[in-house]
Design goal:
- The protein has about 110 residues and is mainly alpha-helical.
- About 85% of the residues lie in helices and about 0% in strands.
- The chain is built from 4 helices and no strands.
- It has helices at about 5-25, 30-55, 60-85, 90-110.
- α1 (about 5-25) runs antiparallel to α2 (about 30-55).
- The protein is flat, with a radius of gyration of 17 Å.
Length: about 110
């Protein structure tokens, strides 16, 4: 067993625990904001864990890393700007829009 295996396991475990706490906290208005932050941190950790896990097996090229980082930064910036400008009463529509964007991006990569 290498040193990196326990690190991968710890990242995955921490991501799952933070996501569970985030989902649990969304049930109350007072804790929803902090719960959303916990869930966001969990997703960042999960994505980092997947990239770390695939690094040793399939080898991600530097060009792919650039696309992953740029796409994450641009998407995160657009998401933050949208979330700051949209009133809470319009959140269901924004969530539907974000889900549609995710579906379209997966459709795009299916054809490429």
């Amino acid at each position: 067993m290498t040193f990196i295996a326990p690190v991968k396991f710890a990242i995955d475990l921490l991501a799952v625990l933070l996501l569970a706490l985030g989902i649990k906290g969304l049930s109350k208005v007072r804790s929803a904001r902090e719960a959303n932050r916990l869930a966001a941190i969990a997703m960042i950790l999960a994505a980092f864990g997947v990239l770390l896990n695939s690094q040793g097996t399939i080898g991600i090229s530097i060009n792919s890393w650039i696309w992953i980082i740029c796409g994450t930064l641009i998407g995160g910036l657009l998401g933050v700007l949208t979330a700051k400008r949209v009133p809470m009463t319009a959140m269901p529509e924004i969530v539907a829009l974000f889900n549609g964007c995710g579906g379209m991006s997966s459709l795009w990569w299916r054809w490429v």
